[in-house]
Amino acid sequence: MPKAKITALGCYTPPRLLTNQDLEKMVDTNDQWIMERTGIHERHIADPEMATSDMAVEAAKCALAQNGVDASELNAILVCTVTPDHMFPSTVCLVQNRLGARGAWGFDLIAACSSFVYGLTVGAHLVTAGTHQKVLVIGADTMSRIIDYTDRATCILFGDGAGAMLLEPAAEGEDCGFIDFLGEVDGSGAPFLNMPAGGSRMPSSHETVDKRLHYVHQDGGQVFKYAVRKMYESCRDLLKRNGFTGEDVAVMIPHQANIRIINAAGDRLGIAPEKVVINIDRYGNTTAGTIPLATRDAILEGRLKKGDLVLFAAVGAGYTVGASLWRWAY
Ligand code: UT7
Q1: What pLDDT does residue 2 have?
Q2: Distance from residue 23's CA to the centre of ligand 1 (Å)
């Protein structure tokens, strides 16, 4: 069976910035509180005419251009998102059409902040099955569309962004690519982070809009405690069953929800701080976008090199948990 490797990466963030100083004018908050409690300084926000598929297409084009791959060569596209353009058709259909990816099938994957780690794993298995040569996994979220900018507990956290990774088979004997994945969902966490209205449980109505139920609602403390514990435990167990310790990890690329969650996980895993990628200060939490954006920054900063053991990790609404190990391929 061929191993799946990541061969290209592209990202997109909209140019407009929302800084902590901007938020100080919108809600009762301040830069010091936001920096100390979350590590976030600014986020990118999409202009009104831009939707999730638009950012996904930009990220996809960038990834394909890296190796001169034509969109018509793609066998499958996965769009990981909680902010699809519409409930249906799937965002992937809009992306496929805009890219001209005539040979691709695909689907949207909804697992909140763990979406991209899940998508990467599914994509890797399509390649490993031998049935797919080129799979594009996109993480894209326009969180600003579902955030209540009168709620200081959530509006400071999120930003918009997208990233895409291309998966292809590794050559025979090539020591790189996907190693292992550990996933978990725990639906008892559903009440603590969700968007109550707009689905079949509570269809949108004047009442749901008046009550602001079409926005993200979060019990931050509950999610925080769970995330700190599970990001550590999932990574610990994944490393252990593959015969590794934290010291073997060259680069940890965690979901960017809160700098304190990331530091706690890295610390408990015994991964040196300089090996843990943090860019939450510049992007906030872009949900499915965080891991490709952080990977891009690690490459640009020269921190991620061919042959490195890479650990991706995420915890999100659901609850969903995912961690995966890769040997970086380029
Ligand atoms: O990616 C999806 C998963 N999501 C997460 O992983 C997020 C997890 N949760 C968190 O990151 C943190 O819980 C938050 C950043 C959301 C909140 O930080 P916290 O340290 O847990 O603060 P808190 O909710 O316990 O609030 C502490 C105080 C409260 O005031 P009182 O009751 O002590 O008087 C809040 O009202 O801070 C207040 N507060 C704020 N103050 C200034 C809450 N939000 C703000 C704010 N500015 N934006």
Answers
A1: 85
A2: 15
Q: Whose CA is nearest to atom 20 of ligand 1?
A: 37
Q: pTM of the prediction?
A: 0.97
Phi-psi region of 33 (alpha: psi -120 to 50; beta: other; left: phi over 0): alpha
φ/ψ of 22, rounded to 5, equals: -60, -45
Are the C-beta atoms of 180 and 325 separated by less than 8 Å?
A: yes
**CA separation for the pair 227, 316 (Å, rounded):** 7
The closest of 248, 251, 256 to 300, measured between CA atoms, is 251
According to the model, what pLDDT value does residue 328 have? Answer: 97
Q: Work out the burial of residue 87: count CB atoms within 10 Å of its CB; fewer than 13 is exposed, 13-18 middle, 19 or more buried.
A: exposed
d(CA 128, CA 110): 22
Burial class (CB in 10 A: 0-12, 13-18, 19+), 65: exposed
Q: How high is the pLDDT of residue 1?
A: 82
> Ligand 1: which atom is nearest the Cα of residue 38?
15
Indicate which atom in ligand 1 lies nearest the CA of residue 220. 13
| List of the chain residues with pLDDT < 70 | none
In testing the pocket of ligand 1, which one of 150, 155, 224 has its CB within 8 Å of the most ligand atoms?
A: 224
User: Atom 48 in ligand 1: which residue has the minimum CA distance?
Assistant: 152
DSSP state, residue 201? S
Question: DSSP secondary-structure letter at 171?
Answer: P
Tokens of 48: 């009104």
Pocket of ligand 1, candidates 28, 37, 41: which has the most ligand atoms within 8 Å of its Cβ, to mutate? 37
Q: How far, in Å, is the centroid of ligand 1 from the Cα of 235?
A: 25
Q: What pLDDT, on the 0 to 100 scale, is given for residue 15?
A: 98
Question: How far apart are alpha carbons 13 and 161 in whole angstroms?
Answer: 5
